[in-house]
Task: structure prediction
Amino acid sequence: MTSPLKTVAKTISLEVVVHTFFCKAHCKLKRKVNVRYFLINIGVNILTNTGLEVVPKVELERYLGKWFEIARLPAKFQEGCDHTTATYSLLKDGSISVLNECTKNGKYKKAKGKAKVVDKTSGAKLKVTFFWPFYGDYWIIKLGQDYNYAVVGTQDRKYLWILSRTSQMAELLFSELIEFVNGKGFNTANLIKTLQV
Result:
């Protein structure tokens, strides 16, 4: 598998060749713009193409129960949702029952699904389905020592959820978590803060 750094290097090399061939007037200015453009994109590519680290260990029994959504990145299947919660419980077959609830336009909505742990070493990588056989990633990338908060994301950085055991989160902790996910390559410019009671 080609590493992200090699892919970026190849892109830069190709751009330099094309730029050199076609450059006639104002080359110095163009080089400055191109260099800045590619330095920015190097950082973006490295962050979004490298693996997303998960927490080293999740004790499933402690993770089960009800979580309140504090914030999320936009997701079509959650459009218009407020007062969002997720409740996890263990099933007899070892899989996890998932119950997502919210209010949309003042009406109660719920979605039932199943999750399974796919990384037995850490317990932090799960697959969730609400419509078999389609599964989505559910990676726990940060977890409070007392399991009082959790940050869940996907490796492509498209989806992100900040969860709490209570309906409100202290602003200082929330700011720290935003800084954390920004450092992991998530774009929080469009982050939605969930309305809770």
Q: What stands out?
A: The helical segments are 4-22, 27-49, 60-63, 171-183.
